[in-house]
Design brief:
Length: about 200
């Protein structure tokens, strides 16, 4: 691994390959001439590109349940077992039809985690958090990978009560922080939620 912390290992790694077609739809600026220039700058400054980071993220990161909380606007809550919490992710409504989404549709998030002295301000820690991490970066698997068989197999391993728990946490979060969502696009989704007005 070149971009991720290799001192830890996910208990349930995503093991997914990246679909450039899907990522391009989410992040078109990472491709074409603009993308080439951006990649050059990123490799010069950080040693790797955003695309390389996303590719490693969904392969080595921790796969967890995610649930559609609403479709208008499209809000998906991504769960972290390590933090025992959800964060809401906002996406364009074009994905509702594209992926046939409805409220409570089950998806998979692949998470990487952050250390630090301060908890991300949009996180509501659950009672079963590990106490190790201060934040996480979720990526919705279905939106960046064509490995649907792998994704479906992961879903089958998640207990029914866990799916219900994630949806419940999403509702509680929405009640406490209405209109507070993260930009769901990869890389941006590591940033804490901001208030949006629709």
């Amino acid at each position: 691994m070149k971009t991720l912390d290799s001192s830890t290992q996910a208990s349930s790694p995503g093991s997914l390959s990246l679909s450039n077609e899907k990522l391009k739809e989410l992040r078109p600026e990472l491709y074409g001439l603009k993308g080439k220039w951006l990649e050059y700058r990123e490799k010069k400054s950080a040693g790797y590109s955003q695309i390389e980071q996303i590719r490693e993220h969904i392969f080595y990161g921790d796969s967890q349940p995610a649930v559609v909380l609403s479709v208008d606007p499209l809000i998906i809550v991504a769960y972290s077992e390590d933090l025992d919490c959800v964060v809401p992710l906002y996406f364009s409504n074009i994905y509702v039809k594209k992926y046939r989404l409805k409220e409570k549709t089950r998806l998979i998030t692949v998470n990487t985690y952050m250390r630090g002295p301060k908890l991300q301000e949009d996180i509501i820690l659950g009672p079963n958090n590990s106490g190790v991490w201060f934040g996480f970066h979720p990526i919705i698997a279905e939106f960046v990978s064509d490995d649907l068989d792998v994704i479906e197999m992961r879903k089958l391993k998640i207990d029914e009560k866990m799916w219900e728990y994630v949806y419940k946490l999403g509702g509680e979060y929405s009640s406490k922080y209405p209109n507070a969502y993260r930009d769901g696009r990869p890389i941006y989704s590591q940033n804490p939620a901001t208030i949006r007005w629709f």
